[in-house]
Amino acid sequence: MAVNPYQNVSGLTTTAAASAKAKDPSSLGQEQFLQLMTTQLTHQDPFQPMDNGAFLGQIAQFGTVNGINELLGSFDTFSSNIQSSQALQASSLIGRDVLANTNQAWLNQDGDVTGAVNLDTSVNNMTVNIYNTNGELVNKVDLGEQSQGMVGFNWNGNDFSGQRLPTGRYRFEVEVSRAGETTAVDTSMSARVSSLTLGAPGEPMQVELDHLGQFAFSDIKQIL
């Protein structure tokens, strides 16, 4: 009985693929790809050879995938280098006072608390309301009319009667009036940087602020 010399081509290819998979179950490497390609060429039907375009297409496809993997590896290395450089530069912030994107601030035994808001337009009046941890209004700072841009404010730590308030955390709400309408605006408060924490690749660096906890590095608006 005649034997078809091409009947086992698919079986040989499958065997080669299984061997490649056994070597590396997670991906098809260059060696395994070339083994499959050689097997395919060796056992192809001479009366129906592989089309040149299809052959070149397979090579180009593998080259593209391999090139993308190498490019991704290069980007990972580049990202790590950038992160290390940023961490080195950010380390100079430790021990310094900054303005952070928060409405909380810590009042020490002595000294003032500073903050700022960024006004997108001029306002007729600007008021800073200060609350304790119980939500009680303990004082307010009236700043009157203000122009567009960054506007700073200061609180001396006293209550309405001029008495010094205890050390602790306080909340600040800034209200502005425009054309008879009063709205709240985002605040940035002063705090001291105590440490930095590097995130995993692709994750933001974390900044530890005294008594306030961790913030994303992007929440730091200004160095004082």
Q: How would you describe this protein?
A:
This protein is of the alpha+beta class. The chain has a domain at 94-223: Immunoglobulin-like. The chain is built from 3 helices and 12 strands, in the order αααββββββββββββ. Strands 1, 3, 6, 9, 10, 11 and 12 form a 7-stranded antiparallel beta sheet that branches. Strands 2, 4, 5, 7 and 8 form a 5-stranded antiparallel beta sheet that branches. A hairpin with a 2-residue loop joins strand 7 and strand 8. Helix 1 (9-23) runs antiparallel to helix 2. The protein is elongated. It starts with 8 loop residues before the first helix and ends with a strand.
Sequence-ordered SSE layout with sheet pairings:
Blueprint: H1 9-23, H2 30-42, H3 52-90, E1 97-100, E2 104-107, E3 113-119, E4 123-131, E5 137-146, E6 149-155, E7 168-178, E8 181-185, E9 188-197, E10 206-209, E11 213-216, E12 220-223
Antiparallel strand pairs: 1-9, 1-12, 2-7, 3-6, 3-9, 4-5, 4-7, 7-8, 9-10, 10-11
Quick structural summary:
This protein has three helices and twelve strands. The chain has 224 residues and is an alpha+beta fold.
Query: Which segments are poorly predicted (pLDDT under 50) over 5 or more consecutive residues?
Result: 1-22
Strand content: 35-45%
Count all strands and give the number. 12
Total number of helical segments? 3
CATH topology of the domain at 94-223: Immunoglobulin-like
* SSE topology string: HHHEEEEEEEEEEEE
How would you classify the helix and strand content by structural class? alpha+beta
Rg measurement, Å: 33 Å
Q: Roughly how much helix do the residues carry, as a percent range? A: 25-40%
Overall geometry: elongated
Instruction: Sketch the major β-sheet.
Output: 7 strands, antiparallel
CATH architecture of the domain at 94-223: Sandwich
CATH class of the domain at 94-223: Mainly Beta
Please tell me the overall pLDDT.
78
| Termini gap | 93 Å
